[in-house]
Structure formats: C-alpha cells, structure tokens
Amino acid sequence: MGPGNQPRRVAVVGVPFDGHSSFLAGAAEGPASLRQALHSPARNLCCESGRDLAEDGGWRDAGDLDLSPGGDPLAAIESGVAGLLDAGERVVALGGDHSISLPLVRAQSGRFAGGEPTIVQLDAHPDLYDELDGDRLSHACPFARILEEGLVRRLVQVGVRAATPHQRRQAERFGVEMLGPDELGRLAGLRVEPPVYLSLDLDVLDPAFAPGVSHPEPGGLSVRELLAVLRELPAPEGADLVELNPRRDPLGLTAVVAAKLLREILDRMLPPAVL
Prior knowledge:
Shape: globular
Order of helices and strands: EHEHEHEHEHEEHEH
Strand content: 15-25%
Number of strands: 8
Number of helices: 7
C-alpha cells in the first residue's frame, strides 16, 4: 500500500530478453507484439469486470528496460525493477523468455507486505532443471534458482504436463506443489494465501489458443479455464507474462490472447472498479 493506505500504482514494463532461450529466439520481441495487440483499434481496453483501463489511472506503461549489449542483462533487469519499486510502484513484466523471472523475483521478494511470496506458476513446463545444455540460468531453470536462494515461501505450479523425471525429482526436493491440466479443481484446496507473485508462461495454454510460443505443448488449458484460475487466486502483488514469440505467431493471435490476459491481470491488481 502507498501513502494513506492507497494502493500503489502498477507499472507495466517490457523485458525484451531471450538470451537464455534453449531452442528458438524471438521472445525478446514479445513486449512490442503484445503492446501492438493491446492498443489495436480492433479492440478496447475494457476488462470483463467492466473496468476500462483507458480511463483508469492506477496503472501505466513504463516502457522497456534498457538491456544494452555488453552488460549483465539479469542484473539490469533486477536493478530496473528495483527502481520502479523504489518509486512506489508494483510491477507487471512482459517477457521475454522465462529466465527473466529470476531477477524479477530477486528484486521483489523482500518487498511484499506479509513476507516472502507464494509464486503461482502457470506453465506447461516446471522450469526446474538444475541446468540445461550447460546453462544454469536457462529459461528452463529459473525456479530451481529461486528456490535455492530461498526467495519464496512456496511454489505452486498449474498446468504442468511436460515434466521430466529429473524435474519431478527437483519438485520433490523443493516441495513444489504441481497440478496438471486435469487437476484444476484441486487448486482451491491448496489454500494459496497472499502475498502472491504470478508467473504466467503462455505455453500453459493449449497451442490451439496460443500457437505463438517457442515450446508448444498440446493438452493445455483453454483461455476460459485460465481466466477462471486467475479469478480463483488471490490478487497478485507482482506478475510476469512471458514466452510470447511473435516469430511463431504469424497471425498475431497469441499476442491478442496475451493482451487479454494482461488486461485481466491488471484488473485483479487494481482496486475494484466503480461502475
């Protein structure tokens, strides 16, 4: 909360980075593609609650972080987000590959009222590898690093359907709670309590709804199922929306879905709309 117990403004910030992608480049172009879909004249900025984000001053687009070549991009991400937090804002980050979750959580973990957050990770993959192809910072590894560093209270994964034996052992080692697409009904019984950090990888969706990702995995959630999950969870204090790959999205449909999800995440993070 901000001065006078007023909710802090939400800053939407682009993180155009895919330097730790393991298969295909392109996720660095995700923030620009998502913004183009968000502001397209083909649609408006209204949420399903009736809130019109075009009229709501509780959020702003903070542009993209400066990830100039030659520096340490993960350190730059952590520093850039820390600057937004120091200015009294909460953050929704637009990726970028999933490796960005590590510096994002590093920057935010100690700043949530109520202590370390529970991360709710919506994803087809656990991203718990100890290393992948020799890269311990791969987009397949961020949650192993986050848990090793003790940055969170709890990790709840939803939609996972491509967990390798190694990643299942990692989940057992770290006490990760993992729900597959057929187990969404169990979510309420997990009693997720705030503060919550939301990490949404678009490949949690079935490729029929979101083909524009680098690692599509059939058998995923529908958009409507995902929206229901978002409503069931406590409102997040911070969030990332990652792995939009415009190079795999020739019709821009995944960007449209991502823009819809961004609107609904913002709606959850802002005070209830007065209609």
